[in-house]
Amino acid sequence: MTTRTITRSITRSSVTRLVAGTAVAVFAFSACGDDDASDADASDAPEEAAEEASDEAPAAGGAEITIADFAFGDPITVAAGTEVTVSNVDGAPHSVTASEAGFTSGILDPGASGSFVAPSEPGTYAFVCAVHPTMEGELIVG
User: Is 142 helix (H, G, I), strand (E, B) or coil?
Assistant: First the structure.
């Protein structure tokens, strides 16, 4: 197992625990309300369903890749030509630089953001950090 694999596993595991814990807390607090609150919750159901569906479909209005802990996170799916924002929340400079497709965020100092336009052809595009080439990620254009 490489250091990158271990870091990615730890990061995914931590995120999974955070999401699961948040879901439990939200459920617990929503169960503590009065009967009138359940009427308001029912009106939110279409919005929640739309948010879940948008996680699976290509992003049309913009997307973001966040660089943290020397990792890009899970691949994101975007529509062709989408502007993708890259945020570096790590303590070192990083970039999102396509292996072959020609897009790049440029090198971003810690705390900085940049952007690039997703390729116009559907497909899966590999990218790396130009400063740390062992950092690898994927952009899916749908």
Answer: coil
Up-side HSE of residue 122: CA atoms within 13 Å toward CB?
4
Q: Which positions ≥6 away from 1 have C-beta within 8 Å?
A: 9
φ and ψ at residue 45, rounded to 5 degrees: -60, -45
Which residues partner with 51 through β-bridges?
A: none
pLDDT single digits (tens) 17-43:
444 444 434 333 334 444 444 444 444
Residue 138 exposed, middle or buried by CB count within 10 Å (0-12, 13-18, 19+) = middle
Report the predicted TM-score, pTM, of the whole model to 2 decimal places: 0.58
> Which ranges of the chain have pLDDT less than 70?
1-62
